[in-house]
Write a structure and sequence with these properties.
Helix 2 (61-79) runs parallel beside helix 3 and helix 4 (163-171) crosses helix 5 (179-190). The chain is built from ten helices and 13 strands. The chain has 320 residues and is of the alpha+beta class. It starts with 5 loop residues before the first helix and ends in a 10-residue tail after the last strand. The strands form three sheets. A seven-stranded mixed beta sheet has the order 8-10-7-11-9-12-13, sandwiched between helices. The protein has a four-stranded mixed beta sheet with strand order 3-6-4-5. Bound molecules: adenosine-5'-diphosphate and magnesium ion. Adenosine-5'-diphosphate binds next to helix 1, strand 4 and strand 5.
């Protein structure tokens, strides 16, 4: 590192934060030492975000960090897990104090919200890339697996879908919007609401969930593949936000809702016998979700509109 030494950098920007549950030893040694709550499984997920590819390189570092942690925590939420610890592998072109201080501010703001502590990492010089590993805990009987959908289950999605793709179009200036819509979509992109507590409540009636990151059809398709089932959802039922409806024509909105991605909502399935209990949970935890379809026999995941199959233009984000 040029302007500041590696260890100084770690101490200044990433050290000295609060310790969450089970941290026997945090940053500073060769490893962190951690204790998982008794009777629980460790849930682990890792994601890399490359500057210029997964986020604009010149974006506000505070927002980059905040978004990076939120979308990583989304994987834990989709599993029904309780977030506990994070590790960070950071590759930066140079050790610029103002960038690092913004980044660490955004990271720790989100970390505090989810009650996770940073317990280690790695810092290297190179083209901007952020790798975050998140660790959580979940009881074996409360984990929501992609492989647990069954024929006859109803399919639900939380919040609204399509906003993530719309937000990206707005950020890329492909669409012009007024001030309030701009701030709505900026919020949806950089600080998506991650439904950790709500997912844990849903895990009492749902054994199967996924977070919508690649696009609803693609992600529900992952559930279908893992469970050996098909799914039918209805276009007319898809929950769309008012800002999205106002932003574009209905076909574009539907396309983004089905194939956009970056929504970070939860798509989950519930057997008919548990619907009454699901409604109680919805009331009790104030969770917004919509029934959008059903799990069926077969291996196809389709969306119908007035009885006809809708084929979106681009199905989910493909990395390669
Ligand atoms: P080692 O050489 O044993 O891999 P490092 O010199 O890479 O250790 O890191 C020293 C300590 O600082 C370790 O505890 C490591 O987990 C932590 N660390 C390094 N980079 C970061 C970072 N970006 N964020 C948090 N902790 C970090
Ligand atoms: Mg190291």
């Amino acid at each position: 590192m040029t302007t500041i030494g590696e260890f100084e950098l770690i101490e200044q920007f990433f050290g000295g934060q609060f310790a969450s549950y089970g941290v026997n030893l945090g940053i500073g040694d060769d490893c962190a030492l951690l204790t998982v709550p008794p009777e629980k499984q460790l849930a682990v997920s890792i994601d890399t975000l490359i500057g210029g590819s997964h986020f604009p390189r010149n974006a506000d570092p505070e927002l980059i960090a905040e978004r990076a942690l939120r979308v990583s925590i989304s994987d834990l939420a989709a599993m029904g897990a309780d977030p506990m610890w994070i590790t960070l592998a950071l590759t930066i072109p140079s050790a610029e104090s103002s960038w690092l201080s913004g980044f660490s501010r955004g990271l720790f703001r989100a970390a505090e919200e989810f009650n996770v502590s940073l317990v280690g990492g790695d810092t290297t010089r190179g083209p901007l890339a952020i790798t975050l590993q998140v660790h959580g805990s979940v009881s074996p009987d409360k984990s929501m697996l992609r492989s647990n959908a069954r024929v006859g289950d109803l399919v639900f999605v939380t919040g609204t879908v399509g906003d993530g793709a719309a937000a990206l179009a707005v950020i890329k200036k492909e669409l012009e919007v007024g001030k309030s819509a701009f701030s709505y979509f900026m919020g949806r992109y950089y600080t998506p609401k991650i439904l950790v507590r709500q997912a844990q409540a849903l895990a009492t009636v749902s054994r199967c969930a996924i977070d919508v990151s690649d696009g609803l059809l693609a992600d529900l398709g992952h559930i279908c593949k893992a469970s050996g089932v098909g799914a039918v959802i209805e276009a007319e039922r898809l929950p769309l936000s008012d800002p999205l409806r106002k932003l574009c024509d209905p076909d574009t909105a539907l396309n983004w809702a089905l194939a956009g991605g970056d929504d970070y909502q939860l798509c989950f399935t519930v057997p008919p016998a548990k619907i009454a209990r699901l409604e109680e949970i919805q009331e009790q935890h104030q969770i917004e979700f919509t029934a959008i379809g059903e799990i069926v026999r077969g291996d196809e995941c389709v969306c119908l509109s007035g009885g006809r199959v809708v084929v979106p233009e681009k199905t989910g984000y493909k990395h390669f």
